[in-house]
């Protein structure tokens, strides 16, 4: 009688008097005993709490999606969509400006999802303030005028150049979209404005001292325009996932406009 009571006293709270985790039909060693996978592998837990399953790229989930999605595929990057993760951390304005000239490919990849209105508007406006001095006739008129008359003229030129950069960048983004691109409009416009201003800075610097009609300044203007075309094509291609010929086509209107506004008048 005492032995019987001791056996029942092993776990008085267990249902049916069986030890925890055991039932009347469980084999010795616990409920998972004898259910090992082939070659000694542990049993599959599927989606049990505390366990996960891995799926390969593009492979549909074998079970129904609890959230109601039709597929359970790994999301791929699509530029311009709010759900897409950024391509890289936002660059400070110093590495951004130097990266466009020294590390263009890496910089364009990293900033294709980030806006840069501050650096783009500031650099373009400063470029516009100095652009008036790159034209011989305009520089003479500004320098001969009084300070109260020349300052509004210079500021108005800076604002006009900035608005021109915004408009041409928007045109480039629209053409890239029509050619199958999927980039975001704000990064495209910002990078286009920075590329335009930075590449023309060497020509403008020498034009301030030598004049826009100087032969060296004109040659430098053509070289910087070719550099602008190369950087613009690379930027549009990476920002919109386009091949180089479509990226060049999307940038063509902006490049021609830059040539007519800042290069050809000097010849």
Structure description:
The chain is about 55% helix and about 0% strand. The protein is mainly alpha-helical. The chain is globular. The model is unreliable at about 1-10, about 30-40 and about 55-85 (pLDDT under 50).
Task: Give the structure's gist in a few sentences.
The protein has 267 residues and is mainly α. The chain is 57% helix and 0% strand. The longest helix has 32 residues, at 147-178.
Sheet of most strands: none
Shape: globular
Q: Termini distance?
A: 117 Å
Strand content: under 5%
Task: Give the topology string: H per helix, E per strand.
Answer: HHHHHHHHH
- The tally of beta strands, per DSSP, is 0
- Tally the helices: 9
Residues in helices, as a percent range: 55-70%
- Structural category is mainly alpha
Element layout with pairings:
Blueprint (H helix, E strand, L loop, with lengths): L1 H7 L84 H10 L1 H8 L5 H15 L4 H9 L2 H32 L6 H26 L4 H26 L3 H20 L4
Helix pairs in contact: 2-3, 3-8, 4-6, 4-7, 6-7, 6-9, 7-8, 8-9
């Amino acid at each position: 009688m005492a032995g019987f009571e001791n056996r029942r006293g092993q776990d008085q709270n267990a249902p049916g008097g069986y030890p925890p985790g055991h039932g009347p039909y469980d084999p010795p060693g616990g409920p998972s005993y004898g259910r090992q996978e082939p070659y000694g592998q542990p049993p599959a837990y599927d989606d049990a709490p505390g366990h996960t399953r891995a799926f390969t790229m593009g492979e549909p989930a074998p079970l129904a999606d609890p959230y109601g999605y039709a597929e359970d595929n790994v999301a791929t990057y699509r530029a311009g969509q709010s759900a897409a993760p950024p391509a890289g951390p936002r660059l400070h304005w110093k590495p951004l400006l130097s990266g466009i000239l020294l590390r263009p490919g890496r910089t364009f990849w990293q900033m294709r999802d980030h806006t840069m209105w501050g650096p783009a508007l500031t650099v373009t406006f400063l470029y516009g303030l100095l652009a008036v001095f790159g034209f011989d006739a305009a520089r003479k008129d500004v320098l001969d005028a009084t300070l109260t008359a020349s300052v509004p003229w210079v500021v108005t030129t800076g604002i006009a150049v900035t608005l021109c950069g915004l408009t041409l960048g928007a045109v480039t983004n629209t053409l890239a979209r029509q050619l199958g691109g999927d980039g975001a409009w704000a990064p495209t416009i910002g990078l286009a404005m920075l590329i335009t201003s930075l590449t023309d800075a060497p020509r403008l610097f020498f034009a301030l001292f030598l004049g826009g009609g100087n032969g060296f300044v004109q040659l430098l203007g053509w070289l910087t325009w070719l550099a602008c075309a190369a950087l613009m094509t690379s930027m549009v291609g990476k920002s919109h996932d386009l091949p180089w010929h479509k990226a060049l086509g999307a940038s063509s209107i902006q490049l021609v406009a830059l040539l007519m506004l800042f290069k050809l008048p000097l010849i």
